[in-house]
Structures are given as C-alpha cells and as structure tokens.
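Shall we go through a protein fold together, starting from nothing but its sequence? Label the sequence line and the structure token line clearly, so we can match residues to local backbone shapes. Would you write everything just below, so we can both look at the same thing?
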Amino acid sequence: MRKPRRLGGIDLVVFLAFIAAATLIVLAAARWTTPLTPAVTIDLSPSVLPAYAGYSLLRMMLAYVLSLAFTLIYGRIAATNRRAEVVMVPLLDILQSIPILSFLPAVTLALVAAFPHSNIGLELASVILIFTSQAWNMTFSFYHSERTLPTDLQEVSTITRLRPWRRFLVLELPSSMIGLIWNSMMSWAGGWFFLMASEQLTIGGRSFQLPGLGSYLQAAANAGNTGAILLGLAALVALIVLLDLLFWRPLVAWADKFKVELSSGADTPHSPVLDALRRSALIALVNRKVFRPLGRLLASLLDRLQPLPGASSPEPFPAQASRFPPVRKVASWVFVFLLGVLALFGLWSMVQLLVQVNLGTWGTLLLAAFATWLRTLAALLIGVAWTVPAGVAIGLSPKWSRRLQPVVQVIASIPATAVFPVLLLALVGLPGGLSWAAVLLMLLGTQWYILFNVIAGAMAIPSDLREATTVYHVSGWRRWRTLILPAIFPYLVTGMLTASGGAWNASIVSEYVQFQGHITSTFGLGASIASAAAAANFPVLLAATVLMAAFVVILNRLAWKRLYALAERRYTLG
C-alpha cells in the first residue's frame, strides 16, 4: 500500500497562495460593493502598484474564465452542428472584427444603469471589454482543433460508443489542448494590450475610471511622466513573468502529453513548479477527498442524462409523453422566437441610427476603410515574414521554448499604447508621419497571434515524424516543404485570421493617439471609430463599426474560409 505523502514546504507555499488569492478576492469584492465612483484619482506613486496589479489581475482572470467557457461551448457547437455552423462562424467573424471601443458605450452605460448604487456595473463592464479582446482567437483555435481531429481517433470513439461528454473530455479537449493553451497566452497578451482602454473609459462628456495598471499607465502617459510609465511597465512585466513561471510554463509542460505521436521525444517541456505541485501532499489530499468524489458524482449524473450512442433514453412517463410535445423541443422553439424578436429589435434600432448618416459621410468612411485595410495588410505581411521561422525554431526546440516563452509573453503583453508616445515622437517627423507609425503599432499588437499559433503548431508535430525526416536525411527546404509547413498550416491559418481581426481592432488605438492632452490622428476607419466614441456620435460610430465588420467578413469569406477548407482537406493528421 502506498504511504500517504507528508506535508512539506511546498504545501505551505500552496496554502499561502490560496490565502493570498482569497484576500485579493475579498478586497476586490469590498471595492465592487462600495457606492459608485465613476472617476477615481489615480495615484502615480510606486506604493500603489501592488494593489493596482492585483485589481487588474483579478479582472483579467474573470474575463479569461468567461472566455474559456464561451470558447468550449461556442466552438464545440459550431464544429459539431452543421446548421449552427452556417450562422455561428460568420457571427464569430463579425464579433472579432468589432473594436473594443464599439462595445464600450452600450456595455458600460447598460451595466452602470443596471447597478447605479455600486461599482459592480463598472467593474463588470471592464471585465466584459477585456473578454472581447480575449475570446475570439481562443474560439477559432478550438473550432479548428475540433474540425481537424485525427480520423482514426474519431473512429475509435465511435466504436467504443463514448457518450458525448466522455468523448469531449478524452478526445476533443486533449486534442485541442496545445493550441488552446498557446492561444490562451495570446488572449492574456491581448487583454493586457487593451487594459488601458478597458480601465479608463470616456463616453461623450462622461469619464469612468477604475484603479489598475491600465489606468496607471494611461494617467502616466497623459501626464507625460516617463518615470511613472517605466514603473508601470516594470510592474506589468514582473506580473507577466510571475504568471509565466507559476501558470503558463506548468501548463505547457503538462499539455505535452496530449501530442498525437507514436514515440515521445527525448527533450520535452519541463517545469519545476509542476514537479513541485505533483509532490504536494495538500493538493493530493484535496484531490482525493474533494475532487475525485465530485468527479464520480458528476460522471454518474451525466451518464444518466446522456444515453450511450445508439441507445434510446428512458422515458419515465410514457403515458404523458404522448399528450405533450417534448419539453426540449418547446424550449428550443421559444428560445429561437425570443432570439428572433431580439434580433429584429436590434436591427430596427440600428437602422434608426444608420439613416442619420449622410451619403458624404458614408463615402468618407469607405475610403477610410480602404486606408485601414492597406495598413492591416502591411502589418500582416511583415508579421508573417518573421514569425513563421521564429515560431518554428521556438516550437521545435524545448530548450529555446523554455528560454523564450516568458520573453515572448512579456513583449506581446506590453500595451503598445503605453510606449507609443515615445515611438510617436520618433516617427511623426518622418515622411508619412502617423500613417507609418500606425502600421508599426498594428504590428506590435497583432504579430503575436501568428507567432503563438505557429509555436503551438510546431510543438504539436509528432516526434516520430521528426525522427523519420532525420533518419531519411530530409533537411533544408525539403523538410520545410514536406513536414513543417504542412504541419503548421492549420495553425498558421488560425493565427493569420485572428491577426487580421486583431489588426482591425488595433487600428482604433494606432490611428488615434492621445498624449499629454493632445490628439494626433491619421485618416482611417480606426480613427473614425475612436473619435466618434469620444464624441458620443453614435450614428457614425455604428456606421464605421458596421463597415469594419463587413470588410472583415468579406475578407474571411473570400480568403480565410477557403484556407480553412484546404487545411481540413489536405493537412489534417489522421
């Protein structure tokens, strides 16, 4: 019989970490329930940075939990239900193309009105705005993984008659894990990137401010306080490195076991933190006494709710079943009806606003959209040129992955808007001015989508295939053409798709910059959206947002959908 583990130093660390997390939640809850304070004074002294970092971290964590739940539910339905896919994938295209500032007025004003006597509405608005910068690339990654499941594993799950929930846990989720983890890192980087926009909100003449690192950096930039900007960035970098060490690196090492391969590589990702957690007696005790019994109870309940494939579910009341239509069918029709009514109401409200925009403004917005599209295309091409070789080099080498993963996360997570004033001063005097600087800022905000996906694709290449290329002396361009590019192609398509949407989103902060009380802008759709949001010009804001969504959806239908189909047809492992 195996002896129970003894409590040790790691258990004390785990317990203290739990106490610290509980304390942060209690302090944040106390602030959430205090009377509404739309604007707080942001203190630029270094002593407030730990508290501000804690507030921002909690908002990011809540937004990530929402994003993960949305990803697993939305992505699975879109991938497994062909009828739903026809609507859900284009809708996801539209959602990822809508800039965060377009969500800002409706989300903020609605939630503040719903909770007029506390900060709950304002905090929820910030969390939801961060969610809109995190969820879409995770959902696309999971959807792609669901659509490219290995055929032989799908056949095994069918032969063994796995219930849907068991198939999800033992096949679908593990197969998507590597891509999901790396896209989660990218989502956090995207959340940090838009932290300043989600913690300091301006709608017309009303300003809303929340204490946090984003507000600190924005206040420091507005004041032109370079020292405070550097302190805020240092705090952000320290927080990102800590998260990488304690959270992301253990997850990457843990997820390596989900590779689809016949033999494991000699050099695999490693995490001392994960090794220490596996030795923890406290975690083992909680797992044995709490999580395992709960898991067995939940499994038993799900087994009762979901019959085996091919078996009919028991009918508890057969006599009454013939009199009344199935409850699920009635509920689905009611839901569809309510959704249709809501959609019609929303469409009517949109039309009422859009008719207020004259033809001249529409023409200007269309030209602005083309200008922004050229910038996004330039940023995308520059990003692909360096991220593909760099991502493959990092993904194929666990040693370089360990060294560069935190570096990449730190660089990707630094809000470019915090350092953009410095870049602006250097570039605005050059020919092209802000037009070229805007391309650089778009690149800073979107190239990481491609890099993280390419790294995930390279890490997912089975070791046996890599060993085969070594045995048969396949190297150089031939190795890239026959192994690497086909293997990373589905991930590259996902990265380029989300980077394209991210570039359109980044246009709102790259074409319209506020620094030291002055506004610098260039001609583009992002600048139109940012200026309309600041002036509370809702008709123009809606028109520019609809135009941006239309551009992105058309591009996705013409290019990305065909590339997805090619990846699914020719470059799926199975």
